[in-house]
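Support case: user asked for a sample of complex input and structure output to validate their parser. Sending the pair below.
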Amino acid sequence: MSDDGLLSSLRYLFADFLDEEDQTPPFLPDGLPEGAAPIVSDGIHLLMDYQGASYARLYVERLTRFVGKQGIDAATFGDIARLMANRMAYEDAIRIAQLKLAQYHDSGGAVRSTDIEKFRFDELVDALPAVAAEPVLMVLDKLGWAHRRVSIPFSTASKWGIRRLKVEAWLRRWRMFSIRYLQERAWVERWLHMINRCLDKQPQSVPAIVESATMVQGFGDAYRQGLAAWHAIIDGLAKPTFDDVLPLTDLAGAIEEARAAAMPDPRQAALKRTIAQIRARAQGAGANAAAG
Amino acid sequence: MDTSHLAEHAGTAGTLFASVFVVATLSMRTMIPLRVFALLLNFVLIGTAIPNHNYLVILVQTVALFLNSYRLHQMLQLVRDVKKSVNSDLSMEWLKPFMTERKCKAGEVLFYKDEKADSMSYIVSGRFRLVESGIELPVGAIVGELGMLSPSKVRTQTLECVEDGLILSVSYDQVEQLYVQNPAFGFYFLRLASARLFQNIGTLEQRLAQQTALAAAKSA
């Protein structure tokens, strides 16, 4: 075997460690609606920076499901493209380290600062590969520490801080094997599935379902509460409507009303009450309509 | 009489003999012969280690011997079961030893339509429903086996758990590994998948015939 062949084989074998993933961005899908190309292109570049080419390809594949789909106009397609890219670039400790490093490099090393972010232990461990994270989570659960909060500094103020950020950003190699990634993947697929079902059952409410992705943002408590509220709205209103269990004629209005009741409260008492009221109203209206 | 030199010669000859087996084992292209040669190698190394009282080697090789025997048994069992399965009812029970368990709760979605497919599943208990078609899948049903062979490798329907249950899953990667490791498995998997496709075509033809007959009866 020639030296080149041997080196390329070794490079391939250690591609993950050498940061040599295929860096060719995916092509824009054919048949994009007018005005969508720059949004999709931005999404691709965001995800190339976030994870790599294969992740950007997954984004394009997901988007392709809606290209030329009946009921999806250019504006809705643009919203799906933008919100999906933002959601796929979810904020974990690795992402925060990436952003902090980028800020440092973009300023040519002039910006030197320290941000202290609060995370729960389980949130930090979830970003590790499932094989490593599961035993750690089990131990943390046994100790009752899984929900304990910890402050993590992200600093470009010292050489040591920058080195640490680089190590944390490097962990993105294993992001796709993490528990958090599996959860995020399931979330994106559920959101897209709900858009699809809405297209079949209540096309006029599609923008509300698409827009509901803005409820899930950030990290820490804000992220967890947004996620819980989103699932509560989908499980309580959207899914039963699509399953023909709840006779809700204005799903978009109901989602808007429920979202207004979603407060930063871990128990989501106001939101649950509002959902129950909307359901009772819809069932009452349905019963009246059936009675004649 | 001093027999230590005999033990030493036996050890050297045994090591040479074992080296031949190492090369032979590593040169095997498929899994079953590889395991057979690995077993022979374990025997040779144990035999070589006994005269020298090398207990660590004896222990390691004994563990490896059991491991190789177990894996060989699994592979042979797989080939037998695949053959039996193809000749009978197209079930995929033979894949069970290679599958991982997953408990599902009511309301949980196992996969969504258009999602990239990466595994196939066997329903052990509970109730599962294909959301788009509304079809409920019975216990013993296999889901997603054709996705592995389809060019787009995407789910064609959403699968939701309606009542708590248990499924067994095997990733396409694992099936591909089995396919490559064992030519007999590969061949029978192809036959099985083709048979399922023909079965689907048969069902569609039956439905078409029924619809045509219905339309003819209406127009008459």
